[in-house]
Amino acid sequence: MAETSEKKKRRMAEKREADTKKQKNPTLTTSKWPLIKPKQNIQITHLKDTDLFTVQNFFTSAESKAFIKAAESIGFVHQGSLGPTKGEAYRDNDRISVNDPVLAETIWESGLHKLFSDIKIRGKVAVGLNPNIRFYRYKVGQRFGRHIDESADLDEGKRTHYTLLIYLSGGLKPNAKTDLSSPKDPSSDPLVGGETVFYGSRNAVVAEVAPTEGMALLHIHGAKCMLHEARNVAKGVKYVFRSDVAFA
């Protein structure tokens, strides 16, 4: 009986450890994600002759909301840092990380690949998205201080050179109306704040991008990455889909 009891305790401990690891680094099957429609007539906006560009309505409103629902069903984990005094960027937000090559390929083939057909870096061409998909959630008062995004080496000789951010929530679009009868849920409020701001020499603001639901923002990272930050959220909840464009 004592041996059986010890085995049971070990099984329970192993299960708790596995559950903890799953929560910290969850994986979600593609069947849980929204269906992504192919994007037609994609139009990009370059920002001030930089390696920054945006794509309006890359995700539909329905797709954006479905990703938020899926991410919330997994459960966010808070991310923080010690701040500049410890040599780190200040960070206060919630995060999820999933590894899903199929989702990455689906989004890449839905239209992103067209945007990079003429972009080469050191003779390399864009081949797809990093399968490490991250979701960020910023509530009121949360932000991500000034930092740069590093390049990452992937398998098969691939290396990331561009950051992809897709805003899943944002401020009101022109002529949009609010539903005053809706319950007072902070996530339903139009987003105020949370801009992504890029800095050049002498800390001059080069570009300031206000989150808009479904809009994609792409910027070069690694050695040529501009210092940037995610400003404080003043109202609502900011949700972001994050991946990286890989070259080979």
Automatic annotation (TrEMBL):
Topology class, membrane: Single-pass type II membrane protein
InterPro entries named in the record: P4HA-like, Pro_4_hyd_alph
Essential cofactor(s): L-ascorbate
Record carries keyword Iron: yes
Region of interest called Disordered, as start-end residue ranges on this chain: 1-32
Gene Ontology MF terms: iron ion binding; L-ascorbic acid binding; procollagen-proline 4-dioxygenase activity
Catalytic reaction equation(s): L-prolyl-[collagen] + 2-oxoglutarate + O2 = trans-4-hydroxy-L-prolyl-[collagen] + succinate + CO2
GO cellular component: endoplasmic reticulum membrane
Keywords for this protein: Dioxygenase, Iron, Metal-binding, Oxidoreductase, Signal-anchor, Transmembrane
Residue ranges occupied by any Prolyl 4-hydroxylase alpha subunit domain in the UniProt entry: 50-246
Iron listed as a keyword: yes
Compartment(s): Endoplasmic reticulum membrane
Superkingdom field: Eukaryota
Protein name: Prolyl 4-hydroxylase alpha subunit domain-containing protein
Name of the encoding gene: LOC115960796
